Amino acid sequence: MPDRMEPGVLRERRAGAMSIVWRYVLISSGAGLISIPFLDVTALAGVHIALIKAITEHYGDVFSDHAAKAILIAIGAGLVPGSVGSILGRRALNALPFMTPVAGLLTMSAFSAAVSYGVGMIFIRHFESGGTLADFDVEHLHRMFARA
C-alpha cells in the first residue's frame, strides 16, 4: 500500500469504505437490540471484527490470523467492562420515569451504531494515512475514543 493515495483514488476508496461502514452501522444497531447481558457485547465484538476485516481488505491489506487475534484480544479486554456498563446502562435507563423499555432498547441500538461508526472511521483514517493492520496501535484506538 502506498504511503499516500492520489486524490481520485482516495475519493473512490473512501466512498467504498463508507459503504462498508454504513452496512456495519446498520448491523450493529440491530445487535444493540439484544437485551441479554454479555451476549449483546459479544455480538457487537463480532460485528466490529467483521467491520475491521472488511475495511482492511477494502484497502488492500491482509487480515491475518495474528492480526485478528490481536484485535480480538484488544476487544476482549473490553468485554468485561463493556458488559458491566451494558448492565448498568440498561438499569439506569429503565430507572428513568419517562424511559420505556422500547426507548431503552432504541437508545442502546443508537449507541451501538455510533460506536461502530467511530471504529470504522478510525480504521479508514489509519489506512488512508498509509497504515496497515500490522502497525495499528490499539492504544491509539483507546485514546481516540477517550477524546470523543
3D structure, described in words:
The chain is mainly α. It has one domain (7-147). Helices cover 76% and strands 0% of the residues. It contains six helices and no strands. It has helices at 7-31, 39-58, 65-77, 79-95, 101-128, 138-147. Helix 1 packs antiparallel against helix 2 (39-58) and helix 1 runs antiparallel to helix 5 (101-128). The longest helix has 28 residues, at 101-128. 23% of the residues are buried. The model is unreliable at 79-84 (pLDDT under 50).
Short description:
The chain has one domain (7-147). 76% of the residues lie in helices and 0% in strands. It has helices at 7-31, 39-58, 65-77, 79-95, 101-128, 138-147.
Number of strands: 0
Strand content: under 5%
Whole-number mean pLDDT: 78
**Low-pLDDT residue intervals, each spanning 5 or more residues:** 79-84
Characterize the overall form.
elongated
The whole-angstrom Rg is 16 Å
Assembly state (oligomeric): single chain
- Structural class of the secondary structure composition? mainly alpha
Count of helix runs: 6
Pattern of helices and strands: HHHHHH
Helix content: over 70%
> What is the total domain count?
1
Termini separation (Å)? 29 Å
Q: Report the biggest beta sheet as strand number plus sense, adding barrel if it closes.
A: none
Looking at this protein, list some descriptive labels:
single chain, mainly alpha, 6 helices
How are the secondary structure elements laid out?
Layout: H1 7-31, H2 39-58, H3 65-77, H4 79-95, H5 101-128, H6 138-147
Helix pairs in contact: 1-2, 1-5, 2-4, 2-5
